[in-house]
Amino acid sequence: MIKPRFTFALVITGAALLFSTPAVAQQSQPAPPAVAATTAAAEIKAAKGIDKREPVDEGTSFAVGDTVHAWTRVTGANGTRVTHVWKRDGKEVWKAYLRIGSKRWTTNSRRKMSKAGAWSVDVVAADGTVLATVAFTVQ
User: Which residue has the higher pLDDT, 25 or 79?
Assistant: First the structure.
């Protein structure tokens, strides 16, 4: 009976590939390019309202009973979120978690002012960095 010689050659070649694969995997591979860190920035304003995504009746002083809007434009934070941290007389009163949907995004939160005092709103990035602050008084 005649046995084909190529069968033996295929087994040897397959075994050689099987045992040589780990050596190929151990070769040094170039490091992937470093991902540049995005730099988020924000602008914040206090206003009595928002119209067409822009603040209306901006101010630094409001009356008890007014609704104050903390309007924010965020850049460089696409796909993350920022937090509006509302403070009265330096003490945290409330937080609003706001999703950022593109590389240039406007958003806002609002509160009805029920107590007088020195108020501020911080825009805080997902990593805890304070990006911007607006301060105002309520009388």
Answer: 79
Phi-psi region of 57 (alpha: psi -120 to 50; beta: other; left: phi over 0): left
Q: Give the C-alpha separation, 46 to 61, whole Å.
A: 9
Indicate the DSSP class of residue 60: S
pLDDT reading at 24 higher than 50: no
CB 112 within 8 A of CB 79: no
**What tokens does 118 get?**
């020195």
pLDDT at 109 over 60: yes
* Tokens matching residue 130: 């304070």
User: Please, which residues have CB within 8 angstroms of residue 6's CB and are 6 or more apart in sequence?
Assistant: none
Mean pLDDT for the stretch of residues 96-121 = 97
Contact 70, 134 (CB under 8 A): yes
Q: What CATH class is the domain 41-138?
A: mainly beta
